[in-house]
Amino acid sequence: MSVPLLQMIETGLAGHRPHRPWLRRLRKRSAVALILQVRDGELHILMIKRAEREGDPWSGHMAFPGGRMDKADANGFAVSLRETEEEVGLQLEPSDRCIGRLSDINARPSRGALGMIVSAFVFRLDRAVVLTPNYEVAEVVWVPLEFLLDSDNREEMVWKYKNVEIPMPCYFYEGRRIWGLSLMMLDELMDLVEGDNPRRKRWRKR
Q1: pLDDT value of residue 110
Q2: Is 1 a residue whose pLDDT tops 60?
Q3: What is the pLDDT of residue 56?
Q4: Mean pLDDT in the chain?
Q5: Contact at 8 Å (CB) between 80 and 104?
Q6: How far is the first Cα of the chain from the last one, in angstroms, to the nearest whole number?
Q7: What is the reported pTM?
Q8: CA 67, CA 20: separation in Å to the nearest integer?
Q9: 65 and 33 in contact (C-beta within 8 Å)?
Q10: CA-CA distance, 61 to 83, in Å (whole number)?
Q11: What single DSSP character describes residue 122?
Q12: Backbone torsions φ then ψ of 50, nearest 5 degrees
């Protein structure tokens, strides 16, 4: 199913109108790269497990290569390219086509009013690569899309926030927990394949 699945995602992204929040230019910005590749006959997506770092709100989380926009970055797309090369040693080339983008997500701030906008760009990788993660990355993981599309693999966790316990959807892939903003991006990607699945409950709006 890998090739038809990739084609469905490409077709869905071609007609997709991603949401972009108001006042996005006034907020802090970051961007990530969602990299798809057919591996051993099955479509996978590249994820990283962030290294444990004091002061990092996403320390140890499963995520996508990416980071904050610098003054030298022309736009979010440039951020996704730069951060992918810095974090996993992958220099995305023109042949590694960007097949679309997902909706911007407002990462809630720990303090302040506006928060940070996270933009997600989707790439198709058709060549063999060797990844060399830097100090920010504890592990590189290729996650099968079919694992995520199987609703039986979806679980529930409890997130403790300001002494409040909040039930949240998640996946556990080979002992690694996928949840939060990364899961929101994956859900939007999966919606392009099979539409709104009621078994994939949302935990908040973008």
Answers
A1: 53
A2: no
A3: 66
A4: 90
A5: no
A6: 30
A7: 0.91
A8: 18
A9: yes
A10: 17
A11: E
A12: -70, 145
Q: What is the pLDDT of residues 171-183, one digit of tens each?
A: 999 999 999 999 9
Distance CA 181, CA 168 (A): 11
Tokens of 18: 């991603």
Q: Which of 20-34, 93-107, 151-165 has the lowest mean pLDDT?
A: 20-34
Cα separation, 80 vs 67, whole angstroms: 8
Token pair in block for residue 164? 């409040």
Are β-strands 28-39 and 105-107 bridged in parallel, bridged antiparallel, or unpaired? unpaired
Contact 9, 122 (CB under 8 A): yes
Residue position matching structure tokens 């100090």 = 135
Count CA atoms closer than 13 A to 200's CA, side-chain side.
Answer: 19
Cα–Cα distance for residue pair 101/34, rounded to 1 Å: 9
Question: Which residues are within 8 A (CB) of 189 and not within 5 positions of it... i.e. 6 or more apart?
Answer: 9, 34, 45, 102, 122
Query: Which residue matches tokens 């949240």?
Result: 168
**pLDDT at residue 166 in the model:** 86
Nearest-CA neighbor of 67 among 129, 76, 59? 76
Residue type, 15: G
DSSP letter at 110 equals S
H-helix or E-strand spanning residue 4:
helix 2-14
In angstroms, the Cα distances linking 50 to 56, 59, 153 are 10, 6, 22
User: For residue 165, what are its two tokens?
Assistant: 């316990």
Beta strands 98-101; 154-161: pairing state = unpaired
Per-residue pLDDT reduced to its tens digit, 29-59:
999 999 999 999 999 999 999 998 776 666 7
